[in-house]
From TrEMBL:
Its main location: cytoplasm. Pfam families: MreB_Mbl (PF06723). Keywords: ATP-binding, Cell shape, Cytoplasm, Nucleotide-binding. It comes from Coprobacter fastidiosus NSB1 = JCM 33896. This is Cell shape-determining protein MreB.
Length: 339
């Protein structure tokens, strides 16, 4: 080791929609999982929020892309560039020498060997010397503050951008899990398609996501309904500008199919749960994490349908990252980390 080499420890929640880095127990990077590359040289032009702002507005020499799809790396080179770019954001002070990185990165629980390898390779190419991995639902459970090593069953439903992960955790391990590729991005796609079909207005992905955040609902009747959201966009036929007010009720109908699929996956995961753990889950309730947990009425809908209380994690968008950060501090203690 040279005179100026040092090890930096970071935890990465590498998500389809957002990537979060924790360093010294604090969130230091929280950016959309997006890169902008120069088409001619493949060099990185921008990463995170800056790349997202370029999305849909680029000329022929720049391409913006999301390196992950459905929770897993879809573009290996872009993923590596993104991790590199985001790690650089952590090291704004020490530009003179590159630290050796000790990382904990989270991965979907349904990952194949090849997908795990892809995350490890990307992390190592981006400077990781000592790379550990943790399954996302395990990280979410730790982030929520559950004692994952206790002989007690807990069920986590983590609804991210690309995947919904449902897992039962007990004694420091995942007893059963179900991962489906229906999550927040599918709800956004449902809305985008619906706006064109129903209102004849063309909306981009970002606008559809804003509709979801402002008036998305898993129920057709809400106790505290949000005000209609006004959408601006071109008419699909005439290209003339339109202004369309959108209500939460119509959005609840348009995302109904996808929500039902998530509901069915939770039921199927419960069916596979061993009886002793099932009893613990009925007593403790089920924890919702990930950005999708913020959808209005989802906790109530699932509670009413399944008959077990659903609790939304305190900070659902950051639960996985927080848990990954705690795992980083306990690398030697947590035997469930993957090397
Ligand atoms: N208030 C909200 N209501 C509904 N959905 C939301 C809200 N806020 C964020 N989301 C959605 O949550 C998703 C992102 O969640 P999260 O950051 O947990 O996913 P991720 O970790 O990047 O994805 P994955 O776990 O699938 O790799 C996006 O689809 C986003 O649109």
């Amino acid at each position: 080791m040279g005179l100026f080499s040092f090890t930096q420890e970071i935890a990465i929640d590498l998500g389809t929609a957002n990537t979060i880095i924790i360093h010294n127990g604090k969130i230091v990077v929280d950016e959309p999982s997006m890169v902008a590359l120069d088409k001619r040289t493949d060099k990185l032009k921008a990463v995170g929020e800056t790349a997202r702002q370029m999305h849909g507005k680029t000329h022929e020499n720049i391409r913006t892309l999301r390196p992950l799809r459905d929770g897993v790396i879809a573009d290996f080179y872009a993923a590596e560039q993104m991790i590199r770019g985001m790690v650089k954001m952590v090291n704004t002070k020490n530009r003179w020498f590159t630290p050796s990185l000790r990382m904990v990165v989270c991965i979907p629980s349904g990952s194949t060997e090849v997908e795990i390898r892809a995350v490890r390779d990307s992390a190592e190419h981006a400077g990781g010397r000592d790379v550990y991995m943790i399954y996302e639902p395990m990280a979410a459970a730790i982030g929520i503050g559950l004692d994952v090593e206790a002989p007690e069953g807990n069920m986590i439903v983590d609804i991210g951008g690309g995947t919904t992960e449902i897992a039962v955790i007990s004694l420091g391990g995942i007893v059963s899990n179900k991962s489906i590729r229906i999550a927040g991005d599918d709800l956004t796609a449902d809305i985008q398609e619906y706006m064109g079909r129903q209102h004849n207005v063309k909306v981009g992905e970002r606008t559809a996501e804003m509709i979801k955040i402002n008036v998305g609902s898993a129920l057709t009747e809400l106790a505290n309904p949000p005000e209609d959201y006004i959408v601006h966009g071109p008419n699909r036929m005439t290209a003339l500008p339109m202004e369309v007010p959108v209500s939460y009720q119509e959005i609840s109908h348009c995302i109904e199919k996808s929500i039902s699929k998530i509901e069915a996956a939770v039921l199927s995961a419960l069916e596979q749960t061993p009886p002793e753990l099932y009893a613990d889950i009925v007593r403790n309730g089920i924890y919702l994490a990930g950005g999708g947990a913020l959808l209005r009425g989802l906790d109530k809908r699932l509670t009413d349908k399944i008959g077990i209380p659903f609790h939304i994690a305190e900070d659902p968008l950051h639960a996985v990252a927080k848990g990954t950060g705690i795992a980083l501090k306990n690398i030697d203690k947590f035997s469930f980390l993957i090397r």
